[in-house]
Amino acid sequence: MKRSFLSSIIISSLLFSNVCLAENNDFMWEKTYKKTLATNPSLALSMLQDRYNSLESGTEKLYVSSKIHNFMMLQGQPYYGSTSTFDPEHSSREKLFIDAINYEGKLKFDLAKNNYLQLLSYANENKDIDGKILFEYHMCRLLNRQTQYQQASVYCEALHEDINNAVSSVLPKYVALRIVANNQEFVGNYDEALITYKELLSIIPVFEDASGVYNDAGLLLKTLGNYDQAKEYISIALKMRENSPLPLLKAQTYHSMGAVLFETGDYQNAFDHFMQSKIIVEQYQYPYGLMHAQLGLGKAMIAMKKFEDGIAHLLGGIETATQQGNSKLRGDIYLTLAEAYRIQNKYSVANDYANQAFELGSSIESERLIGSSLKVLASIAESQEEYGLALDYYQKYANSELARRNMRHQSAYIELETARKDHSDTKQESKLVTTIQENKKNIASLKEKTQIYQILLAVLAALLPALWYLRKIEIARVELDSLTGLLSRAAAIRKIKKQPELCSHHLNHVIILLDLDDFKRINDTYGHPTGDRALIHVANILQKELSVGEICGRLGGEEFILLLRNVDDLDIRDRVEHLHYVIAHQTFIAEDNTPLTITASFSFLATYKALSDFDALYSILDQALYQAKKNGKNCIVDAFNDPILFPPAAYESTQS
């Protein structure tokens, strides 16, 4: 018995020492490989190939094959695996594996998922814990990339449990923990994600590139609003990747830093980092990275009011996203374009892009994209002061968000059910049953909350029109000239500046600046009350003569401004002359009952372009009005076409 006991101790010791020796050998090999990779990539590839050739068929050989694939991809080279005539069964599994990784790179997620699930099923059937861990890792990563975070969490949690229970595994624990932490962040378990990142940083070997962990942790800190610490972490990642032989990793971190800088309002630096990312991904023909770089560049340029360049980047992003079949990102770019044109007061184009995003969201059944589109459409309508339409969009947006919330929880239930069917591990099935039951309770609770939310939404919908009406009355009270009832100076100019470019170049915005002639003489002769009557008299004429949607405001004193809309080229002069005529030929009554008439000097200009640069146009009109006074008053000067002699002060400034 002693001999038997002693033998068991010796065997156990030998087994333990063999495990430690194997782990130590793997550790030393990885350390040497990483060191070589940093200085001599060609030699590092040879090391990978030598290790691959020395291994027997099995999970470790598959894992090394995936490392060769990763190396080649980061060098911009394709890789399709190795075929062996000695073990066709292993070659078949390797082909499934490498094909899946290639499908994933080409965003063919369903094909990749099918292959990974076949491999995971084979590992479960053969009780291959290394294979189980490896393919749970790939399923977790794949579903994360598809944004199917709830379904991904099934595989990520199984991976987390299996990697913690394993004495050793082919897939390094620090590799597994990074993808687990990503999923915890995506499903909103931020505390757990921070704990996992902390554990990851504590176990990652010195020779291993920890830059990816710092990059991911930095992005999590950005999500939590801790921008200073986010920049600190991503700066560490950038420094670590500064001399990396794998440029695509550097491109990723440039993009991450750009995203953080954009959130802090440092748009120029954000642009510079997005551009660095774009240069690298273009060089290595990586379309997934290119789409995100183009979106980041466009957003940064638009934030800096460099609309033409920003829109060019966004249109390039649409082309790339269309080629890659990435509808969700294409929808995000449509919305960014819509916002860019809204800021420029080009509402027609803004509406077109927002509606394209809405239609795309409907076609791919993306409640997130539908809701975002409705919110942008509401914002565009509000900018045009179409408050009824804005309210309609906001109500649809609220309903969409409510539906999205319900769908998200229903989807969580469906995804968990799907994952249960796909994942054959008994222990995991037990966990899934518990999770599904909990989700059923949550859904029932959510339905009750949804009913309350719908009641509140109905009350809000009933109140909003009244609130909008009261707000419009208040705005009108503040923005109207108290004497004439016309728009005040600020209100009139703001409305004029919002006018977009006209679709037809044969139609025009016509801006008229007019000043009443000899107004001071009326005040001096008949008194200020009669002067006020004159102003009210002219205001009434102008309001009566203008069409719906045209603008009339009092700039101050006896000066008025008008905007005529959609005037045909041939009708411009007629409309201006008609207004000039009716003012001069209608009488009003002075305080002493004397009938009086008053004339006005006019300057005008016509353009089909947007009026956002009104300040420059006003300067031109003002000079033309000065010319009208110099011409003898009671006349009209075309600011763009009639000769204008500048006042002496204009010349004095250039001669000094």
Automatic annotation (TrEMBL):
Domain GGDEF residues, every copy: 507-641
Catalyses which reaction(s): 2 GTP = 3',3'-c-di-GMP + 2 diphosphate
EC number, as in UniProt: 2.7.7.65
Annotated signal peptide: 1-22
SMART domains in UniProt: GGDEF, TPR
GO MF annotation, one: diguanylate cyclase activity
UniProt keyword annotation of Signal present: yes
Protein origin, superkingdom: Bacteria
InterPro entries (alphabetical): Diguanylate_Cyclase, GGDEF_dom, Nucleotide_cyclase, Rev_trsase/Diguanyl_cyclase, TPR-like_helical_dom_sf, TPR_rpt
Enzyme class: transferase
Pfam families per UniProt: GGDEF (PF00990), TPR_12 (PF13424)
Keyword line: Signal, TPR repeat
Residue spans of the TPR repeats: 211-244, 251-284
Entry protein name: diguanylate cyclase
